[in-house]
Design brief:
Methyltransferase, Cobalt-precorrin-4 Transmethylase, Domain 2; Arc Repressor Mutant, subunit A; Heat Shock Protein 90; six-stranded mixed β-sheet; elongated; 14 helices
Length: 437
Amino acid sequence: MEFVESSHLELKEIINADFKKEIIAFANTDGGEIYVGVAKNGDIVGVENTEKEMERISSMIHDGIQPDLIPFTSIETVSIEGKKLIHVNVSRGGKIPYHLTDKGLKPSGVYIRHGVASIPASEEMIREMIRQSDGITFDKARTMNQELTFQYAEKYFSKRDIAFQTENKRTLGLIDTDGYYTNVALLLSDQCEHSIKCAVFEGDGKTRFKTRKEFYGSVLKQLEEAYEYISLQNNVYADFVGLERVESFDYPEYALREALLNTIVHRDYNYSGSTIINIFDNRIEFVSIGGLVKGITLNDIMRGVSQSRNMVLANIFYRLKLIESYGTGIQRIMESYQDKMQPQFFAETTSFVTVLPNLHASQPTQQKTEDITTESKVLDLFADKNEITRKDVEKLLGCSSFPARKILNSLIAQNKISVIGNARATRYILTTPDPKY
């Protein structure tokens, strides 16, 4: 028998420190075989005490590699040319990426087979293997960082009399069936890699910048600190109705709270970008990374249809009584304005934007009249078409995408038009036969 190393065959004269790496590399790639007692040039040197060495290999696999790789390996003794060799067969594992127990899910602990070499996997390779192996949503998948602390989360749960021990973490979905921390654990941990950026501008545009703040740490910490920060921008005004003093805020407190919760619970954490909150004199914009969940349209959302992208995270927020029920957030935001003014919602391919209007921002009568005239022009498009697109509105008004979306969302809020399709296939149809009245 001739031995030549390949992408599926590794030769080892003796068992050395790299032995576990070779096994991991085969398990993470396409499987392979290792012969112990064969030199790199193919010469057969044999193994003196095969029983002892086989026990050593078995211990390496059992104690030094995670997840459990025993079901995907076999170890046997073979005799070739009168000498005893050890043959280790490694199949591709069912729970990749496999890694060195003492290194974790890092490039220093995860290996793949490339040609005749076993090399460290890059962080992106590791993430892709996790996605392939788990085939589940982000918050349920294993996180690469397994060295997590939960100082803030522990205090937060304790204040609400909710247990946060190891078994509770399993029940909540922070720890999976193999004992690994999941991505939802990363989000709640002190090591959370995402952040919320708040910026305050003078006026109604971004030309005059006033201040900014970025919030890090557990998403629970970010939630508390970001809400406190935007609440400071929520001015209160007093008026008198007869002898009674009546106070009102720029923004309904419920709307602020719900919009902030939505950006945290429903954003796509596969993107590394920060959640954005822009505060202007006349509005606050909450920009959540990631568009709507596939198959859900803006029209569905407006009608109360809900499909959470991060179901585990949503369930935890529900347990903490931060959210009350599914599918009512957008409707309650709109109801909190009591028909005085209406919030706007923009669904794009990679973002979802909630715009809360300032109830005390001045809006000249002339501007209101212009808006009504512009909306009438858009509705006139339906005289010749059963459905229109945003591009049709841009062409009609000679404007960019943002003003066109603003007008369309205003018509949606008034229930004059409805949305069909999503992303680039989004179209708009009349809701009633005579939407102008």
